[in-house]
Amino acid sequence: MSDLTVRTARSDELGRAAEVTLAAYLADGWLADDDPYRERLADTPSRARDAELLVAVDTADRVVGTVTVCLPGTPWSEISRPGELEFRMLAVDPPARGYGVGAALVGAVIERARELGVRRIVLSSTPLMAVAQRIYQRIGFVRLPERDWSPGAGTSLLGYGLELDA
Questions:
Q1: Cα-trace Rg, the chain
Q2: Which of 95, 138, 110 minimizes the C-alpha distance to 1?
Q3: For residue 5, what are the β-bridge partners?
Q4: What are phi and psi of 127, to 5 degrees?
Q5: Rounded CA gap, 165 and 95, in Å?
Q6: How many CA atoms lie less than 13 Å away from 109 in the CB half-sphere?
Q7: Digits of tens for pLDDT over the chain (166 positions)?
Q8: DSSP assignment of 19-81, as one string?
């Protein structure tokens, strides 16, 4: 997908962004059909309102990926601290995988962080998300074990970070 564009989601794309997010999490087995987290993943209107919801669109202007970008202390942030930017819920539509959509979304997050002048980008990932972690590591993210945490019983999240040039 060489002709991929990453930009802020339009209001008419929120439904498709929710579909892509749920499809990605379900396809990889990260989400059970009855998991209450489904509702949070699908809440793209809140993500667009209280954070930045970015979408990757193909040449037909179809949403093929999405990511949520947030600042510390905002409703969608989890591990970010002052001077950092966090991203969450990176999702690529299963048929669009393998074409650089995930890397393009992370690249847009890095660009946004530089625009904001933050010094570090952070994220959380489950141990099961090995493919995503390989993308992050190729880009330069490193494990931040001191940021590992658990949002609830049976769920462990691993912290990652990318230091940006001053």
A1: 15
A2: 95
A3: 57
A4: -55, -25
A5: 35
A6: 33
A7: 568 999 999 999 999 999 999 999 999 888 887 888 899 999 999 999 999 999 999 999 999 999 999 999 999 999 999 999 999 999 999 999 999 999 999 999 999 999 999 999 999 998 888 888 998 999 999 999 999 999 877 789 999 999 998 5
A8: HHHHHHHHHTT-S-TT-THHHHHH-HHHHHHHSEEEEEE-TT--EEEEEEEE-TTSTT-SS--
